[in-house]
Structure formats: C-alpha cells, structure tokens
Amino acid sequence: ISLDRLPIKRLESIEENGAEHFPSDVDYDDKRVSLIRRIDFAWALWKWKGMVENLQLAHQELSVIIDLIDTVQANDAVTVAGMTRPKPMPNEILSDLAVSTATKLQGYRNLGKYFKQSAKALEQKINREARFYGALIRLQRNWKVKRQRSNEGFTIDLSDSSLYDPTRPSTLSTIRVDHDSAGMLAINVPQDSWYSLRFGFVGTSETQSASDDKYVKETHSLLREVHKSIFAEQLFDMLNHEAFNEGVGFNISGIRENFMEMSIGQGASLFVSLHPSGKPNRPSYEIYLQQIFHEHAFGKAKDRNSGLLDHFCLSLTHRIFSNRVLVHLESVVCKVPYLHLISHPTWNSRTSSWTVFMTVPPSIIPQGKTQFRTKVVVKDDCISVEAECTPNVVGLLKSSSCNLFSMNKYECDVADLPVIILQQVASQIVCWLLEEARTVGTKASRDFLSLSLEIVEGERVSLVAQVNPEDTKGCISWWLVMENGEERRKSLGHLSLDVLYSVLMDLINLCG
Amino acid sequence: MDPQTQNTSLQRLQNVENRVVKVLELAGGVMEELASPSGPKKEFVNSHCREFMQSMKDIQVTLREEIKSACEYRPFEKCDYNARIANEICFQKLEYVLTQLDDLKQTADRYPSSG
C-alpha cells in the first residue's frame, strides 16, 4: 500500500489549455473512502498469481502422470517399477511427532485419573468392610460364626449338638448375618419369633445406635436372648414329655400350645407357658426349673424318665408349705423378746430348717448352759422338732432333775406348731431354773411347765408358765401358785428372763 | 487364636489394604506427572517409584507372614454354649438375689438404727 505522505493537494486533472482542476474539499469520511480506494494490492496479486501458476503447473504434471498411467494400463508396454512415498518434509515430521506426543500425554493423564479414582473407591470399600469384619470378629468370640460356601455370606449357629435333642428343632438355630444400608453387620430377628419361659400361679396375676461398639453390644445381647429362647423351647419340650409320665407331685389339668397347667400339693395350681419375648420378672422357682433342666440335660445321658417335672412340683409344694411354717414361727418369735429365729441353708429343694434360739442370763454355774435351741426341720410336708428339755417326753413329766443337754426329736402338725414351740421354750426355761435352784441347794422339782419349791412340809410354791400364741404382749406369761391345802394363784405377767431369775432367787431365799 | 493376636492380625491385614490404596495413588500421581505439559520432574517420579516398589515389597512380606501364621479354621471344636446357658442361669440368680437385697435394704432403712 502506498500512501502519499505529503499533505499537498493532488491535482485531479489538467486540461489541454493547462487549466488545473483540483478536487473539491471532501470531508473526512469521504477522504478516507477515497484513500482506501487507492490501496494497491499489486504484490498480493503477484503472490496469488504465483500460487495459481504453481497449481496450474502441478495440475499439468498430474495430468502427465495420469496420461502415462492410462497409457500404461491400456498398452501394457510399461510396467511401473515402484513408487516411492515422497520424503516427508521437516515440518511434517515435527507435526506428526507433536500429535503423537499429545496423544501420549492424554493417555497418561487418563491413566492417572483412573488410578486415583480406583484408589478412592477401594478406600471406601475397605472402610465399609473393616466395620463389618471388625464387628463379626467381636461376635465370633462368643458365637459360632459359619461361612457359607454357596455365597459370600455368614451365619451364626446357635444350636448345640451336645444338648438334650428336642423333637422340636428351633427355627432360630441359624441366624443369617446381613448388611445394613451402610454396609455394617446386621442381624434381623423379628421381635415375635423368639420366646421366653413364663411361669406363674393360677389365680394370681410383665435401636439405631450411636457407636459401632454399642451396636455390637446390642447385637450380642440379641443373640443372647435368642440363645436363651432356644433353651426355653427345649425346656418346655421336656416338660411336655414329662407330663405324660406318672408323677407323685403333680396332676395335669390343662394342655394347650405353649401352655401347661397342673395342680400340685397344698391346693395350688401352677402353669408354665412359652410366650413371645418380653421381660417377665423371674421368680426364684422359675430359675430353679431352668437349673435342674440344664443340669439334667448336660449331665447324664438323655434319659426320658427323669422325673424332673415331678421333682420340681414336689419342690414347689414343699416351698409353699415351708413358707407357712415360717409364718407360724415368725409370729411366735417376734412376740417373745428373748427368742431369736435363724434359718439354715439345707441345699436341698425339698428340705427347710430353722432354729429358735433362747439366750438365758449367765448363771452362777461355771460353764452353765446359756443357750437353748429348738430346731425345726421340714421335709416335704413333715415337720420335726428337735430340742433339749422336751416337755412331753414320757418319763420327764415329773422329775427332780433335767438333762439340759440331751436332745429329743418329735413330729408335729403345722397347726399345732406355735403352741408346740412355746411349750418347748417354756419347758427349757423351767429346766434352766430347776438347775439353778438345784445348784444353790434348793429342793426343787418340775412338772411339765411348772417349777415347784418346797417351803415347809406340805407347802409348796410354784412358778407356772402359761403359753398362748395369740397373746400379743408376749405369748409366755407366768403365775405364782401357792399350795398349802388350798391353791392360790397370782399372775406375774410377762417376765424377762432376768426378772424371772431374780424372782426365783427371792423365792429360794423365802424358802431358805 | 486369643483375642489379642486376632486383633493385631486383623489390623495388619487392614494395613495391607491401606497400602494397596496408597500404591494406587502413587501410580496415579506418577502418571499425572508424566502427563504434565512441562515435562515430568525427575525427582518426583523417582521418589514415587521408590515408594511404590517399597510398598509392594512390604505388602508381599506381610501377606506371606499372615498366610504362614494363619491357623486352620476349625469350626468350634469346644463349644461353650452349655457353659453360656449355665452362666445365664447364674445371672438370673444374681438378679434375683439383688432384688431381694434391695428389698431388705429398703426394709432396714425404714427403721432407724438403735445404739
């Protein structure tokens, strides 16, 4: 582009006569337009022309080649020896290299991304599985975990082949281990599918967790409940079988599914049932039933005629009876201040035992007896009493001495028990007083519950015990009886043993 | 296997898994570095590859150890379910005794001690 730099007015035209014509004054835009019109594309045209010429030359050469090939094909006169690929130009080599390099780099980039994504996915999977297997390992410490060969799954086996084999195999014995939505271990046991044993007398009338640790503990608790449920089912099954055996201690009065009712001794009726889950409160006899079954089931061979139900019912009957006995004993002992009641463990479910202790004030007799015992033993529903100074043993009714140390044993009824105990105790007191009197040289004698002292010939004074279980003030009261031809009685009321002793001493002084 | 060794063995295996993840990450890192337009930094690639090889070696060693020391899986030779039920029964007894003691305490608390 050539531009006139000089700001001179350009001559537009000149006439023959020399007259000059200048262009009229144009405004800026018009001036620009006219300048643009003057741009000279000469060189570019030259280059364009060159390219066109080159193409034409190339076209010419191509035509020649094509003609040659056509001639050769038509005439078969000339064979083409070979055609070499034209050597690539340097810029072509470079661009090929650049393309392949770029492709390679892209490949690396994709590979890198693939590895990193895989790493992330693997990490997530590992963490999920770590929770699952961590929980499974903890449960495996306590429960049998089995791997299934068919799939990748696990089960927990609650059955025990060494146990009493039931005719009613539990559907709960195998528990499948599932995954929850977060991949964590989960076991699903519907609430109603497991049982607990329930026991009672007729006529009378019971998770989404925060941490993994808590979750494992809850799962463990659930497995424990199911395990106990299987045991309960087996126990109930055993009871069902026993129900058809002869038994002394029970009579079946009703059987339904998962429910058994029977009448036992002492006028009681009891039931045993399996009921779906829940937490019943556990009376002690229910625990006992489980214990004897467990000992039996794992102890000896699977002996069907074990008499367990019979034994259990007899034990329960005994328990009811011994509770009555205890009530009677307590009613007496709590009213007499110098008596204490002690229970003895017998380690036998059909035997109970207590002792009524009486402590007497220390006497002037060195190594004198200071404690008297009345032992009460109940076996099934038989009561036996064993004590020193038994009042109603023949031969001891009237005597001038008492063996404070020899024990006698006799039986009694539950209805008579309070009176018998009181009489026994009163007899012991009388014997004790007798020995005290004899020690100081007084001539004394006893007759059942009275202690007599001879004042002078024909005159006797006696301390007489009176027992009354209903007496709320003290049960054992004392009378002073004077005999000199006629009998005069004076009531002394309820005396402590100290006072009684001093009364005796006073009487002795009186006699002496 | 007692609970403690079981725990550490599991931990070791979990460690191996974590290392595999790390190895993958290293490979990815190297690839990305190779793809860098300004060319890979030699030190970076070298250190990553070193770590890669070391980790692979550690993984191999650990797995070999674990395989050798893993004991045969014997499905519960000595089942303790029997003792477990006995334990549950004892537990019930304890619960019962505790309620009895609580009752005793409540009764005793009602009467002020004398002397």
- Would you list the SSEs of chain B in sequence order as H and E? HHH
What distance separates the N and C termini of chain B? 59 Å
Regions of chain B with pLDDT < 50 over 5+ consecutive residues?
none
Mean pLDDT of chain A: 82
Largest interface: A-B, 41 and 36 residues
Global structural class of chain B: mainly alpha
Report strand % of chain B: under 5%
- CATH topology-level fold name of the largest domain in chain B: Methane Monooxygenase Hydroxylase, Chain G, domain 1
User: How many helix segments of chain B?
Assistant: 3
| Estimated share of beta-strand residues of chain A | 15-25%
Mean pLDDT of chain B: 86
What do these coordinates show?
The complex is a heterodimer of chains A (512) and B (115). Chain A is 40% helix and 24% strand. Chain A has 512 residues and is of the alpha+beta class. Chain A has a domain at 319-393 and 402-511. In chain A, a hairpin with a 6-residue loop joins strand 11 and strand 12. In chain A, helix 3 packs across helix 4 and helix 6 (308-333) packs across helix 7 (417-439). The termini of chain A are far apart. In chain A, 22% of the residues are buried. The model of chain A is unreliable at 204-209 (pLDDT under 50). With 115 residues, chain B is mostly helical. Chain B has two domains: 1-75, Methane Monooxygenase Hydroxylase, Chain G, domain 1; 77-114. The A-B interface holds A 105-109, 111-116, 118-119, 122-123, 126, 130, 133-134, 137, 141-142, 144, 146, 158, 160-163, 224, 227-228, 231, 282-284, 287, 290-291, 294, 298 and B 3, 6-7, 10, 14, 17-18, 20-22, 24-25, 27-35, 37, 75-76, 79, 81-82, 84-86, 88-89, 92-93, 95-96.
